[in-house]
């Protein structure tokens, strides 16, 4: 095991879901899946020195010899802040396998913003979506933590990104992430905007929205394209013609977080590409309620970070 003194954490939509869904079995409950801090104690062998700045992989798995599934993700048994004490605290105890050196080019706030959203986005794009250089990717919810991570990573991987926005303000900020174009929710039919902008439909849809937008997702997707979905913020249900799926040979792929290989791959991409997450605002730990409300209101671009030392 390892103990990390948490200097910064961040807020995710998963924290809101956990709070609302009634899945917390006992109180007090410590939320938070992301952390950047200092390694203060180690019980076991590690190549990381005490005193090093580290980030934590929020997905906890059993030892390799005890796993029963081919896909290691299926063996995730605990998630920080979900069914295990999270990172919105002064210290966090986790298996040493979940502790990694923080990318040196990132600030404390930036490093705390990457674990959950960049892990999920990396798995969506690489392991599930198999994005290829030069392919067009439509990214729903591009102003949120997962969406901005998707834009940053997809650009790094050589995809041509179309990012969605719902206002002039959001569009201006998203344009700073250098997508090929910004598609506006408030400018009518999404699929028509896509075709007008690039002359065809996209190869991959990066979707954390679903629900009421599902029809536009499928209308924007080329035959043989892929949809990778990791959220349903616009609703849990959608109606569509199943025959369109096999006729167009679409691949509909679910995704949720990732395993240790994904986390290692994500960190390598962030480090090699000197990638940076978008930090919207920093709150002291004493104002965690305000941080949750800000995320619920949704008028932000990127991640809300928490200073655990205040």
Automatic annotation (TrEMBL):
SUPFAM superfamilies cross-referenced by the UniProt entry: GroES-like, NAD(P)-binding Rossmann-fold domains
* Family matches, as InterPro entries: ADH-like_C, ADH-like_N, ER, GroES-like_sf, NAD(P)-bd_dom_sf, Zinc-ADH_QOR/CCCR
Q: Does the keyword Transmembrane helix apply?
A: no
Q: Name one Pfam family in it.
A: ADH_N
Q: Which GO terms describe its molecular function?
A: oxidoreductase activity
Q: In what residue span(s) does the Enoyl reductase (ER) domain sit?
A: 2-306
Per UniProt, the keywords (alphabetical) are: NADP
Q: What is this protein called?
A: Zinc-binding dehydrogenase
Question: Which species does this protein come from?
Answer: Streptomyces sp. NBC_01393
């Amino acid at each position: 095991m390892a103990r990390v003194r948490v200097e910064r954490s961040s807020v995710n939509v998963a924290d809101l879901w956990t709070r609302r869904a009634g899945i917390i079995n006992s109180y007090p409950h410590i939320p938070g899946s992301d952390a950047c801090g200092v390694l203060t104690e180690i019980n076991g062998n590690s190549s990381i020195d005490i005193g090093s700045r580290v980030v934590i992989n929020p997905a906890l798995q059993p030892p390799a010899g005890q796993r029963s599934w081919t896909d290691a993700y299926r063996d995730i048994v605990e998630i920080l802040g979900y069914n295990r004490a999270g990172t919105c605290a002064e210290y966090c105890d986790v298996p040493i396998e979940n502790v990694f050196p923080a990318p040196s080019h990132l600030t404390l706030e930036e490093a705390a913003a990457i674990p959950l959203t960049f892990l999920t986005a990396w798995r969506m794009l690489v392991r599930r979506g198999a994005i290829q250089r030069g392919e067009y990717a439509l990214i729903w919810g591009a102003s949120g933590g997962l969406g901005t991570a998707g834009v940053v990573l997809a650009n790094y991987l050589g995809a041509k990104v179309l990012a969605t926005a719902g206002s002039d303000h959001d569009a201006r900020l998203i344009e700073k992430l250098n997508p090929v174009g910004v598609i506006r929710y408030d400018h009518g039919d999404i699929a028509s905007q896509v075709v007008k902008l690039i002359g065809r439909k996209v190869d991959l849809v990066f979707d954390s929205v679903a629900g009421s937008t599902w029809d536009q997702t499928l209308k924007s997707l080329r035959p043989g394209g892929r949809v990778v979905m990791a959220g349903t913020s616009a609703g849990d249900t959608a109606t569509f013609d199943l025959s369109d799926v096999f006729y167009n040979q679409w691949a509909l792929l679910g995704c949720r977080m990732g395993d240790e290989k994904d986390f290692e791959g994500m960190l390598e991409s962030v480090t090699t590409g000197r990638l940076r997450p978008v930090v919207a605002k920093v709150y002291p730990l004493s104002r965690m309620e305000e941080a949750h409300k800000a995320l619920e209101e949704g008028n932000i671009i990127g991640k809300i970070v928490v200073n655990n030392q205040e």
